[in-house]
Amino acid sequence: MKIILGLTLLSVISTGYCFQSHASAYIRGNPVRHFLQRWHPKGLQPHTDFTYDIKTDEGMIIELHCPYISLHMPCEEYYFKIIDGPHEETICGKTKKYKYLSKTNFISMRIITGPKLLKGGPKCSARPIKA
């Protein structure tokens, strides 16, 4: 019994390397502002995998606007990925005035962090516009 308990604890500890969280929003007329800061107001903790999904009505697309994105390096450990159907776009490092127009009415944004605290994550807003 002690061996099974020990193996179970070891598997939980070994899979607990990365904290995963997921949030979503459905937007219609009003934009969603600074949604990443609302979920992580003090920054993203080390080894975080955070996914945020945004969906809007059929016949609409999503305009994503990020005035400033500042991520640590290297790009393999810290990145911001936008998944829009089959299209993916990955951002790492520092970027100013980033704007993205989706190709579909549903996008996922994924932020991966490495061993350091990420105090100032991407400051982004999203709004629906007609396709």
From TrEMBL:
<dbReference type="InterPro" id="IPR035914">
    <property type="entry name" value="Sperma_CUB_dom_sf"/>
</dbReference>
<keyword id="KW-0732">Signal</keyword>
<protein>
    <submittedName>
        <fullName>Venom CUB domain protein 4</fullName>
    </submittedName>
</protein>
<feature type="signal peptide">
    <location>
        <begin position="1"/>
        <end position="18"/>
    </location>
</feature>
